[in-house]
């Protein structure tokens, strides 16, 4: 049940910026909450009789990126550390500042971990990790991709300092001093780390991780190698994981796993068996959950889960029964305490509404005066644009600190908008002229009242690249809009992977020329998603990719003056050849391009595409039959005379229509890919076969794999 305590709202909060101070004294209840927001304010408050009582509040400053607790070994961890800009500040639980540490980092701190003693600080900017002991620089490491989170195994258990970095390239990097000890491959970009059970388990080596695509796992980080313990996929297609905590909320003596996601879902996993955790409860909030903590806040004897959301709301879920039942047949009545709380909230709300009305009138009068200077209200937008492996589409999530009025989506490249179940906004499309303005999409989403989060899905076409723009207008006066841009890359449906199958038939593209390592890296960044913008350390680098739509692969290896790209899909090689040539020409660099085409790869790619083609053609045929079969059902009264395959179409009609609606233009995309494959195969031979495309489309309608392969080989 929801909490009946009244928590204050703070400013917009970042990930992992809310903590419960540990209980101290004889009463074993945690009554004090501390939270840092993006206005730079640290707010600390306690709860008395269901009301928030301020303990301390700091002045505004730079955005607070992380908030951690520390303290001497075997004492309550009640010293508060906040990372703001490139600085770390420390406060006592009473609000007295005892530390101001200006680091030597040139960027803002993105992740922080404070070791139990408080003497060891582990700080990360985008790519840089630093370890400080007593504010003195100890160790430094430059990561190959962006660092999302950091922690250190407990020194009292493992007897050495072992930092673990969660990186964007689907890897956990385990360090020893300033050196990489080893890398741990995980199933998605890790966004958050936590010690299992809050202390790393019995060995102190157990680390929990959550990924941006919603997966959860446990790995034992031993001194020699990683030992995976369990991994939970994201079968329910929920949001990415932002925060994890361990707390015994069920009171069974075993700590449960509390998980907060960026789609507002709060989950409780427990360990029914000693092995994998099982989802026991979940609760949906309307905003992304930035931090989650378990403890006792509101009422003695009743444990709670406290979550802070993106826009600064604090929400509690309690184990306290909400209703107290009277005798049999009696109506449930609200307690006197609850009734007085409701009436005080109502009067507070009326007071606030009156104040808003007065301020609005004052603003209207001042804005109409001859000397008025209109100020544009600033508002924060939390956005995420990621490729989903499951359906080869991009998710665009927009979250605003206030209610969204509308979002206009514009694209200068062809993209399909896909249906999103959770989306309650009304979408309307405007006709657009693609020729003079390069406008291929103009769609407006009108949101319902109090919508602060909007999720859209788009699918791009590989080889066509440009920019998708979102114009976000919230419900504030005067009307203000923020524009966010997202790059649709030439190979937009490719996703980074740890390895590829080297036994597939591969086509090779070789580049040579007077270009630097940084220049060719910038071209690869331009072509492919999930490549770090920073030029990698070393003389050369290799990245592996998988096409999420078809399952084809790409290996890219390059260094100064040389690049080698291998793929089992000839269209991927063709796109790379065209785009890389264009980028080099822009910089007036002459490229020596050579390629090796493997004829077997075309047959191999067609065999990968064909099952998808067959399925989509069958789905389209079934959907086209539904109306006629339903009409027949109405006329005849029953459908017993129909063949079983037609009866099953009627039985599954709703699911078939839903699936067809969710994947618009899927069949056309497959036709387009096969057509591109046909044109690209002969382009490398110097032959133009565009006149044969109508004949190819006729064969595709027949859906005969052998006939299709024969056409490719005979043309």
From TrEMBL:
Domain of life of the organism in this record?
A: Eukaryota
Q: Where in the numbering of this chain does the BBS7 platform domain appear?
A: 494-596
Query: Which Pfam families does the entry link to?
Result: BBS7_GAE, BBS7_hp, BBS7_pf, Beta-prop_BBS7
| Cellular component terms (Gene Ontology) | axoneme; BBSome; ciliary basal body; membrane; neuron projection
Q: List keywords of the entry alphabetically.
A: Coiled coil
Record-level GO BP terms: intracellular protein localization; non-motile cilium assembly
The BBS7 beta-propeller domain covers 18-319
Entries under InterPro entries matching the protein: Bardet-Biedl_syndrome_7_prot (IPR016575), BBS7_GAE_dom (IPR056334), BBS7_hairpin (IPR056335), BBS7_pf_dom (IPR056333), Beta-prop_BBS7 (IPR056332), WD40_repeat_dom_sf (IPR036322)
Which sequence ranges form a coiled-coil region, renumbered to this chain? 335-362
Occurrences of domain BBS7 helical hairpin (ranges): 599-712
User: What residues does the BBS7 GAE domain cover?
Assistant: 377-486
Q: What protein does this entry describe?
A: BBS7 protein
Q: What is the lineage of its organism?
A: Eukaryota, Metazoa, Chordata, Craniata, Vertebrata
């Amino acid at each position: 049940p929801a909490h009946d305590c009244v928590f204050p709202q703070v400013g917009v909060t970042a990930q992992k910026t809310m903590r419960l101070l540990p209980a101290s004294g004889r009463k074993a209840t945690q009554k004090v909450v501390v939270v840092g927001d993006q206005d730079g304010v640290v707010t600390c408050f306690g709860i008395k009789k269901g009301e928030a009582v301020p303990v301390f509040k700091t002045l505004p400053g730079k955005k607070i990126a992380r908030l951690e607790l520390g303290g001497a070994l075997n004492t309550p961890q009640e010293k508060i550390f906040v990372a703001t800009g490139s600085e770390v500040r420390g406060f006592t639980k009473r609000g007295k500042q005892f530390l101001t540490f200006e680091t030597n980092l040139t960027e803002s701190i993105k992740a922080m971990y404070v070791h139990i003693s408080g003497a060891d600080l582990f700080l990360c900017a985008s790519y840089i990790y630093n370890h400080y002991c007593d504010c003195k620089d100890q160790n430094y490491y430059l990561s190959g991709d962006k660092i999302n989170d950091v922690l250190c195994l407990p020194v009292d258990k493992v007897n050495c300092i072992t930092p673990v970095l969660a990186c964007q390239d689907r890897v956990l990097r385990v360090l020893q001093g300033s050196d990489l000890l080893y890398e741990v491959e995980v199933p998605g970009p890790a966004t958050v780390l936590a010690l299992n059970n809050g202390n790393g388990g019995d060995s102190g080596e157990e680390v929990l991780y959550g990924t941006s695509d919603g997966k959860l796992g446990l790995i034992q980080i031993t001194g020699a190698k990683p030992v995976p313990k369990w991994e939970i996929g994201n079968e329910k297609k929920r949001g990415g994981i932002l925060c994890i905590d361990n707390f015994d909320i069920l009171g069974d003596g075993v700590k449960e796993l509390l998980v907060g996601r960026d789609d507002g879902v709060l989950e409780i996993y427990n360990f029914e068996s000693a092995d994998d955790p099982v989802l026991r409860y979940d609760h949906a909030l309307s905003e992304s959950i930035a931090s989650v903590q378990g403890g006792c806040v509101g009422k003695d004897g009743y444990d709670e889960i406290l979550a802070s959301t993106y826009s600064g709301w604090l929400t509690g879920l309690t184990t306290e029964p909400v209703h107290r039942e009277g005798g049999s047949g009696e109506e449930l009545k609200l307690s006197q305490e609850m009734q007085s709380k409701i009436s005080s909230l109502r009067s507070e709300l009326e007071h606030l509404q009156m104040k808003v009305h007065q301020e609005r009138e004052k603003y209207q009068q001042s804005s109409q005066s001859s000397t008025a200077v209109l100020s544009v209200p600033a508002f924060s937008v939390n956005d995420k644009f990621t490729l989903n492996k499951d359906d080869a589409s991009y998710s665009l999530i927009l979250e605003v600190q206030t209610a969204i009025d509308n979002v206009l989506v514009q694209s200068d490249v062809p993209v399909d908008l896909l249906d999103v179940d959770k989306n309650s906004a009304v979408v309307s499309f405007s006709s657009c002229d693609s020729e003079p303005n390069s406008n291929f999409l103009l769609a407006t989403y009108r949101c319902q009242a109090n919508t602060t989060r909007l999720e859209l899905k788009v699918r791009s076409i590989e080889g066509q690249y440009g920019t998708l723009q979102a114009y976000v207008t919230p419900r504030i006066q005067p009307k203000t809009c923020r524009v966010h841009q997202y790059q649709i890359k030439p190979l937009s449906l490719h996703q980074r992977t740890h390895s590829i199958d080297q036994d597939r038939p591969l086509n090779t593209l070789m580049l040579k020329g007077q270009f630097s390592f940084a220049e060719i890296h910038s071209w690869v960044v331009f072509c492919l998603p999930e490549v770090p913008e920073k030029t990698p350390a070393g003389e050369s680098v290799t990245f592996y990719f998988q096409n999420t739509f078809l399952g084809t692969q790409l290996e890219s290896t390059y260094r100064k003056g040389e690049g080698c790209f291998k793929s089992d899909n000839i269209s991927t090689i063709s796109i790379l050849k065209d785009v890389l040539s264009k980028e080099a020409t822009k910089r007036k660099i002459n490229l020596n391009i050579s390629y090796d085409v493997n004829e077997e790869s075309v047959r191999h790619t067609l065999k990968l595409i064909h099952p998808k083609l067959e399925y989509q053609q069958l789905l389209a045929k079934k959907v086209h039959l539904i109306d006629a079969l339903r009409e027949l059902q109405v006329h005849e009264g029953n459908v017993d005379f129909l063949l079983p395959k037609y009866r099953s179409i009627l039985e599954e009609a709703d699911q078939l229509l839903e699936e067809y609606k969710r994947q618009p233009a899927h069949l056309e995309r497959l036709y387009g890919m096969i057509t591109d494959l046909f044109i690209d195969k002969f382009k490398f031979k110097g032959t133009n076969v565009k006149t044969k495309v109508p004949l190819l489309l006729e064969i595709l309608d027949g859906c005969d794999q052998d006939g299709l392969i024969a056409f490719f080989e005979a043309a």
